[in-house]
Amino acid sequence: MSNRPNLSHGRGYLAIPGPSVMPEAVLQAMHRSAPNIYAGELVDMMPGIMADLKRVARTKHHATIYIGNGHAAWEAALSNVIAPGDRVLVPATGRFGYGFGEMAEGIGADVQLIDFGKSSPMDLGRIAQALADDKDHQIKAVLAVHVDTSSSVRNDIKGLRDVLDAAGHPALLMVDCIASLGCDQFEMDDWGVDVMVTGCQKGLMVPPGCSFVFFNDRAQAVREAMPRVSRYWDWTPRSTATEFWQYFNGTAPTHHLYGLRVALDMIHDEGIEQVWARHKVLARAIWAACDAWSAEGDLRLNIADPSVRSCAVTSLRLGDNDGTRLRNWVERELGLTLGIGLGMAEPDDPARDAFFRLGHMGHVNGQMIMGLLGGMQAGMSGLGIAHGRGALDAAAEVIAGH
Ligand SMILES: *Cc1c(COP(=O)(O)O)cnc(C)c1O
């Protein structure tokens, strides 16, 4: 046994839900010496980058860039429209719903949480009731997460807008699309979203470090009525920049912009509808394999109803500590890294080692997904974890028949 070859040599696959796999073309575009930030190519690239970001977000309104991660985008968006003491309604469907609410709490908001648990989408009826109960319109914003990356549920954002409209409630609709943008269909303007936040390291295929806030004129009116917004987070000068430094309130994330330029070109060359469709087929292949595996043993998809599953991330569980065992095995033996379970069990609960996640967002294709599934099957066989037969055949049929 000691001379058993290790099969992890070769190109690895980081199949976690962000940071996602980056295209070589993005990495190559970033590999350059420091560019001039006062004139020339990079400065000239900015209007096109801003326009192409809005195309991905499906909005004609305003876009801003922040040097920071998704948490920074949360803080940026909230800082522009939420003052201390303002009430926000947080319909949470997993760890990232709580996170958005905690960020609001941190800037002094009065957070009204509706917790829909860890394996269900928002129940729009309960949200309608909360809005109806808010007779004097104390709720200033609803903070929703499109795809909660911990549970892998996908929420109905258009439905949430309809509920706000039916209630005649003026609250802003603020949506976290950090996991979903460039993966699952999202329509900022058509769905009536007032503020949307995302990051660059998931569907946008760029290393972590930039995030984005999009907002419409309704949100801008709320911004203008704010008693005070900190200079750094203020979205106004960033979204109306006439000088290069104003987009970033300081030095630009130079190399990220080169990477982002290429990533946006790749998305628009493929076509955003085609990007969504690709993620959908690959997700269906994963679900087909999981359904076959679940026929025996303990493997379960966290979200039972396929119509509310994300196409970017899949949250799963096995029995006992088999989730962690499987992750460790496929990483060590195959060079395949699966995502940890996040927010599904308390840190001291042994059940946390049952959970794990698959990231399939951004720069992923059919052979990667077949490799991911084949790796998981090898791991379950290697570890003696019971599983149903025919999973790889089922996945291959989805891909062959798409
Ligand atoms: C990844 C993620 C975040 C947090 O982003 P960071 O870059 O880790 O700060 C927030 N919300 C969702 C839905 C995410 O997927």
Automatic annotation (TrEMBL):
Could you mention a single GO BP entry for this protein?
glycine biosynthetic process, by transamination of glyoxylate
The entry's substrate-binding residues are 357
Q: Known InterPro entries for this protein? A: Aminotrans_V_dom, PyrdxlP-dep_Trfase, PyrdxlP-dep_Trfase_major, PyrdxlP-dep_Trfase_small, SP_NH2Trfase/AEP_transaminase
One GO MF annotation is: L-serine-pyruvate transaminase activity
Does Transport appear among the keywords?
no
Which PANTHER family is this protein grouped with? ALANINE--GLYOXYLATE AMINOTRANSFERASE (PTHR21152:SF40), AMINOTRANSFERASE CLASS V (PTHR21152)
Pfam families of this UniProt entry?
Aminotran_5
Q: Does the keyword Transmembrane apply?
A: no
| N6-(pyridoxal phosphate)lysine PTM positions | 202
What this protein needs as a cofactor is: pyridoxal 5'-phosphate
Q: Which UniProt keywords apply?
A: Pyridoxal phosphate
Q: What is this protein called?
A: Septum site-determining protein
Q: Give the family this protein belongs to, as stated in its UniProt record.
A: Belongs to the class-V pyridoxal-phosphate-dependent aminotransferase family.
